């Protein structure tokens, strides 16, 4: 199913303002990572299915850090939807819009946000019942100007976007100020090298700096 903007989940995601997008290599890093982000004010995270430990890491966060809204990204197949549901994810995200994956997520009751970059992507997503969409890759595809252009024909349908890709502290405020944006995804909050180094203090500081902009 789509992420309903008026649902408790939709409200939590928009109120969170930032979603940390993470690549994690060791399950034992998941809980201290989530706690560091939460200490810095970041209350939502997306663990990407780019490593074999992502689902187990999600389960650890759901079990030990209940204050963190935890989802799974890089969902590319219906089988992965099943795995994500079994792991107990709060939501699922994909880099593109795949009708087979979106429909299976609806069948399994997984709140889902497909990725879009063109008007055709937005149109297809809306036809599939999705109104909370990942705008990816944001900066390399033209940034906020491009998003405004592709979204214009669909604004009356109540669509919101989560830009991801190339966003950093210097342009974060500009994205968050747009009425098109429901939240912003950020991989810079906890890059893979900081996670591998176990530098939770640096990750907490990144989160604090970002949240000072997101909630001045």
Number of helical elements: 10
Task: List low-pLDDT spans.
Answer: none
Q: How widely separated are the two ends?
A: 33 Å
Rg over C-alpha atoms, rounded to the nearest angstrom: 16 Å
Strand line-up in the sheet with most strands: 3-2-1-9
- Beta percentage is 5-15%
The CATH topology label is: TIM Barrel
N-to-C series of helices and strands: HEHEHEHEHEEHEHEHEHH
Shape: globular
Structural class designation: alpha/beta
Outline the structure in words.
The protein has 216 residues and is of the alpha/beta class. The protein has one domain (8-211): Aldolase class I (TIM Barrel, Alpha-Beta Barrel). The chain has 10 helices and 9 strands. It has a 4-stranded parallel β-sheet with strand order 3-2-1-9, with helices on both faces. It is globular, with a radius of gyration of 16 Å. The termini are far apart.
Provide tags for this entry.
216 residues, alpha/beta, TIM Barrel, three-stranded parallel sheet, 10 helices, 15% strand
What's a concise summary of this model?
The chain is of the alpha/beta class and 216 residues long. It contains ten helices and nine strands. The chain has one domain (8-211): Aldolase class I (TIM Barrel, Alpha-Beta Barrel), CATH 3.20.20.70.
